[in-house]
Amino acid sequence: MAVRVPANFRNICLVGNSGCGKTTLVERLLFATGVTQRMGSVEEGNTASDWSDDEKHHKHSLRPSTLFFEHEHHGVNLIDTPGLADFIGHAIACFPAVETVAVCIDAHRGIESTTRRLMSVSAERNLPRVIIVNKIDDANADCEGLVEQIREVFGSECLPINLPAGNGESVVDVFEHEHSEGGEPDFSSVEDAHQQIIEQAIEVDEELMAEYLEKGAAGLSPKQTMKAFRRALCESHLIPVCFVSARSGAGVAQLLHIFATLLPSPLDGNPRTFLKTVGEGDETEFHPGNEPDAPVLAHVFKIESDPFVGKIGVFRVHQGTLHTKSEVYIDDLKKSVRIGHLLKRRGKEQMEVHEIGPGDIGAVAKIDEIHFGATMHASSDESYKIKPLPLPRPMFGLSVELKNHKDEAKFAPAVHKLEAEDPCFKLERVAATKQTVLRGLGELHLRIVLERLKNNFGIEVETAPPKIAYKETIGGKAEGHHRHKKQSGGSGEFGEVYLRVEPLPTDHDDGFEFVNATVGGSIPKQFMPAIEKGIRQVLGEGAVAGYPMGGIKVEVYDGKYHAVDSKEIAFLKAGRRAFIEAIKKARPLLLEPHVMLEVTAPSQYMGDLTGDLSTKRARVQDTEMIGSDVCMIRATAPLGELQNYSNQLKSITGGSGAFTMDYDHDEQTPAHIQQEVIAAFEGHKDED
Ligand SMILES: Nc1nc2c(ncn2[C@@H]2O[C@H](COP(=O)(O)OP(=O)(O)O)[C@@H](O)[C@H]2O)c(=O)[nH]1
Ligand SMILES: [Mg+2]
Predict the structure, then answer these.
(1) Which of 95, 406, 479, 608 has minimal Cβ neighbours within 10 Å of its Cβ?
(2) Are residues 462 and 313 in the same domain?
């Protein structure tokens, strides 16, 4: 059994396009390390990672699974992630928990759209990367061509650390090649590949480089080259490429050896930045260090709801140790909670443990306060949260209505449970359109959410494309005035407000600014909050089209009050009316969300796809070939034009296209659409 110290841990996130064989590779690794006696298969629905009912049904990983195994006295926490574009957020959400991202590529299909995305997101997050080329047994695999393509697309720092031999029947090591067995590789020579990867690794160490130039490769000890290798990996100066077949097992021993001996441990991986939310200072970098007794700090990167155990929070310990009897503080909560059950997980299997030490990954059950992104820490005097890293924003929407109104009370709690498990899914109640909208990353994503609502909670809904969530703003400056005066029997209401409005810069944080610019007490200070409240009501309801407003600065510069009749309600009403008047004169504008759309499809459809996009007010940013016959189109387009895009893409490409979208910016709606929306709102008001 491995000694449980940080130096012996390897935390690895396995990512890659759906279908490249990650889940099968995990089966192979569990089998090779003796954890299982038989390999499961995705087709039969008996793998360790894809254990939930919907994963078995769809034959795809739909959420990450953490799997623990041991090899060469090291403990490996491997996270198998979904590769479907709609579920990519789940994979990215696991990045803060690991030292290394292993990007898997199908030897036959080559680089695919999510491969690129995951390579660049892990680089942005400063995570060392390893590329695993799987399916080298495939008769159509072109490993030599793929290495060239990888180096062209991801840089010359991508270098083979081993090579396929015997047409993918075995794998020859080229890094420590004196230890390697097996014949000649299918391409390149062991000597050339060895020299290339050694030279790339030692470039990060000037002294070692000098030694190498003087004595040659034979003059360097394996310890020296391994140290340089690990540093080059952490600095992204080297991205090793290795070859396996999850199906035949070729290259699996070599892969395990790389995991254990070459990948960074929590001690020598790149540190994580946390932000202080309570206490002195702002940003702190955490290395787990070697001190098991340091104050504990753990970050929850995944939430699951287990039918038997209840809510499970999967976390990574960044400092100290979590014990079953620990009292911890969650986020900024002042009351501590007691850790009851600590678990190590292997898919659905779980083992109870007494503690999870620095650098390790574990899970905790039955703590209500836990949520995605929560931190658990030792004291209420100091609190941190991990520096937030952008996840794809859920833009694809479906408006839903309950089929059975009896489900009303169940609906919100059920959706909240699903929201807690999925960082890229949310429920939106759009006041402007009176719609309940589920938002996710794509059609498949929401289809699976609806299946869960039905199967796990017994809730069925009717769906429709949502109405567009416009925003109101203004294009110019204007002034507004209102005098509110009401005399009814005894006391009256009096308040008079003069104000100006002007647009705020689009990058303004809150999208609203309220300034009291009155002089000489024309309106006593105590009425300002009432005026602001009146204005904020309009911000929520909209002034011209019934949509929420933003990007507006308001300056109240004059007014009048009455010693007896002035009261808050009078100023609230006056502020409201003056504001509406000013907005109507300040060139009101409707904004609509635009998204960045990324479409991949066989290149023969390129012309049809760009042609179709041009009818959707889209602007093509660039087009690119991925490999020899897949094209990628990036375009910005109004979200409202894409409500039915998954069906349209399916019919254009015969089901072979895929797309992702992410929020890009808000943009002014064309004048004729704006007029229609405003007219519809006016008409609606009359009906009311
Ligand atoms: N020929 C071949 N097929 C494989 C290999 N690994 C996985 N597959 C198949 O590829 C398909 C997708 O595998 P899966 O593990 O679900 O991929 P994932 O989506 O990346 O998790 C399945 O049909 C597997 O049987 C391999 O090494 N060689
Ligand atoms: Mg999978």
Answers:
(1) 406
(2) no
Ligand 1 pocket check: which of 29, 30, 42, 51 to mutate, most ligand atoms within 8 Å of Cβ? 42
Within a domain: 209: no
The CATH number covering residue 427 comes to 3.30.70.870
Helix 408-421 to helix 443-457 angle (10° resolution) is: 130
Q: Say which amino acid occupies 654.
A: G
Residues 507 and 596 in one domain: no
pLDDT digits (tens, 9 = 90+) for 63-89: 899 999 999 889 999 999 999 888 889
For the domain that residue 96 is a member of, what is the CATH number?
Answer: 3.40.50.300
Are residues 447 and 495 both part of a single domain?
no
Could you tell me the distance, in angstroms and rounded to a whole number, from the CA of residue 43 to the centre of ligand 1?
9
Which atom of ligand 1 sits closest to the CA of residue 59?
A: 16
Q: Is residue 223 part of a domain?
A: no
686 band by pLDDT with thresholds 50, 70 and 90: low
Q: Do 581 and 486 have their domain in common? A: yes
Containing domain of residue 121, as a range?
Answer: 6-191+236-261
**Cα 391 to ligand 2 centroid, rounded to whole Å:** 20
- Report the pocket of ligand 1 as residue ranges, CB < 6 Å: 16, 18-24, 42-43, 61, 83, 134-135, 137-138, 245-247
Q: Say what the pLDDT of residue 14 is.
A: 97
Task: Count Cβ atoms below 10 Å from residue 222 Cβ, excluding itself.
Answer: 13
Choose the final residue of a domain: 347, 365, 386.
Answer: 386
What is the identity of the amino acid at 366? K
Whether the pLDDT of residue 111 is over 70: the answer is yes
Which residue's CA is the closest to the ligand 1 atom numbered 7?
A: 21
Decide: residue 65, CB within 10 A, 0-12 exposed, 13-18 middle, 19+ buried. Answer: buried
In this predicted model, what pLDDT tens digit does every residue of 242-254 receive, in sequence order? 999 999 999 999 9
CATH of the domain at 514: 3.30.230.10
What confidence tens digit (pLDDT) does each residue in 309-332 have?
788 999 999 999 999 988 999 988
Average pLDDT (407-415) is 92
> What is the average pLDDT across 18-36?
95
Contact 400, 454 (CB under 8 A): no
Read off the tokens for 359: 């650098």
Asked if 254 and 219 count as a contact pair (C-beta separation under 8 A), the reply is no
Instruction: Supply the pLDDT for residue 1.
Output: 47
pLDDT value of position 433: 76
Whether the pTM exceeds 0.90: the reply is no
> Do 62 and 170 belong to one domain?
yes
Identify the residue whose tokens are 């391409």.
187
Residue 107 neighbours by CB distance under 10 Å: 24
Residue 226 lies in a domain: no
Gap between the Cα atoms of 158 and 660, Å rounded:
27
pLDDT digits (tens, 9 = 90+) for 482-497: 999 987 767 789 999 9
**CB distance 284 to 294 below 8 Å:** no
**Residues 6 or more apart from 206 whose CB is under 8 A from it?**
none
List, for residues 361-386, the tens digit of each pLDDT value.
999 988 888 889 999 998 888 788 88
**Residues with Cβ < 8 Å from 688, sequence gap 6 or more?**
none
The rounded mean pLDDT for the chain is 90
Q: 42: CA distance to ligand 2 center in Å? A: 8
State what percent of residues in the chain have pLDDT above 90. 57
Nearest CA to ligand 1 atom 6: 21
pLDDT at 494 (0 to 100): 92
For residue 17, report the distance from its CA to the centre of ligand 1, in Å: 11
Q: What is the mean pLDDT of residues 170-181?
A: 77
Which atom of ligand 1 is the closest one to the Cα of 43? 23
479: Cα separation from own chain's centroid: 43
> Ligand 1 center to residue 302 CA distance, Å?
25
Amino acid occupying residue 514: F
Check if the beta carbon of residue 371 is closer than 8 Å to that of residue 390. Answer: no
